[in-house]
TrEMBL record:
Gene3D superfamilies: FAD/NAD(P)-binding domain, Glucose Oxidase, domain 3. Residues 23-162 form the Glucose-methanol-choline oxidoreductase C-terminal domain. SUPFAM superfamilies: FAD-linked reductases, C-terminal domain (SSF54373), FAD/NAD(P)-binding domain (SSF51905). This is Dehydrogenase. PANTHER family: GLUCOSE-METHANOL-CHOLINE GMC OXIDOREDUCTASE, GLUCOSE-METHANOL-CHOLINE OXIDOREDUCTASE N-TERMINAL DOMAIN-CONTAINING PROTEIN-RELATED. GO terms for molecular function: flavin adenine dinucleotide binding; oxidoreductase activity, acting on CH-OH group of donors. Signal peptide: none annotated. It comes from Aspergillus sclerotialis. Belongs to the GMC oxidoreductase family.
Length: 176
């Protein structure tokens, strides 16, 4: 993906990207073995939900409408676009937009939700006290408890979860 941001010549550049803030696709993280040195198996499973691809393709088409409108149209140099206009003659075609999404997809990489705070029946791993269902003395305190990925950077939300976990562990309630 380095070619997306590679400066080809002197001049002014603009990057216009689409982002899927709340993906419906679900990946997985699994323990590979009992050896603590073995990294877990991580499968982000991008675009496994058809709605994710459709949303990104339609956003790509919308961005194309914007850049084909003035003043963008007269300011942008089509031969320097990625993907080049000559490669994608008709972004009005949904199949072309979907192909571009599949070919150019990359992640902002804020994985979350692998240990979602939900009831077990819904696939949850932790309860509202951050305790792992079916265990004792085990809590999860990180972004993996988010059932949905927060929009934007997740750091502040993780801090809030950590503060709440500290209160829970100390035995303080919200009212304290």
């Amino acid at each position: 993906m380095a070619d997306l941001f590679e400066k080809k010549a002197d001049g002014n550049y603009i990057s216009i990207l689409v982002s899927l803030c709340h993906p419906f696709s679900r990946g997985s993280v699994h323990i590979k073995s009992s050896n603590v040195d073995d990294k877990p198996v991580f499968d982000p499973n991008y675009l496994s939900h058809p709605l994710d691809l459709e949303i990104l393709a339609r956003h790509t088409q919308y961005i194309e409408q914007i850049v084909q409108s003035e003043p963008f149209r007269s300011l942008l140099q089509p031969e320097d676009r990625i993907p080049a206009v000559s490669i994608t003659p008709d972004l009005k075609d949904p199949d072309v937009a979907r192909r571009i999404v599949r070919d150019r997809l990359f992640s902002c990489f804020h994985p979350a939700g692998s240990c979602s705070m939900m009831p077990v029946e819904l696939g949850g791993v932790v309860d509202d006290q951050l305790r792992v269902h079916g265990t004792s003395k085990l809590r999860v305190v990180d972004a993996s408890i988010f059932p949905l990925e927060p929009r934007g950077n997740i750091q502040a939300t993780v801090y809030a979860v950590a503060e709440r976990a500290a209160d829970l562990i100390r035995g303080n309630s919200i009212a304290d």
